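User: I'll paste a sequence; please echo it back and then give the predicted structure.

Assistant: Echoing your sequence first, then the prediction.
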Amino acid sequence: MTRPFHLAFPVHDLAAARAFYGETLGCREGRSSDAWIDFDLYGHQIVAHLDPAAKAVAVSNPVDGHDVPVPHFGVVLTMPDWQALADRLTAAGTRFGIAPHLRFVGQPGEQATMFFYDPSGNALEFKAFADDAMIFAT
């Protein structure tokens, strides 16, 4: 079994992070303080750390006809979980940087993907593969 990863990232507002990660994404909240909040992101520990001056980096690279934000983070989900999240985010009125779609269609590594931003401008990508053997396809 793959072990969970840990990621700490800056947010400019903990209340906004709590609403986004807790309510919009449905992450269970773990420990917290007045300076950080732990979230369970599909079994992985992500920690929103308060930095009132946090500003997102606006860099992108072209990937399959889209400008993919760098840096970004997320989880490779199962296709049903990916679709459920896409539906949940759409219903919540989430503004997508790159709307849910298939990329690399008909090629090794074909995947469902979507990009969106948290309230602090951190980019997230969630993806899924019809066949997990394609995750590292070349």
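The two ends are 23 Å apart (CA to CA). The mean pLDDT is 95.
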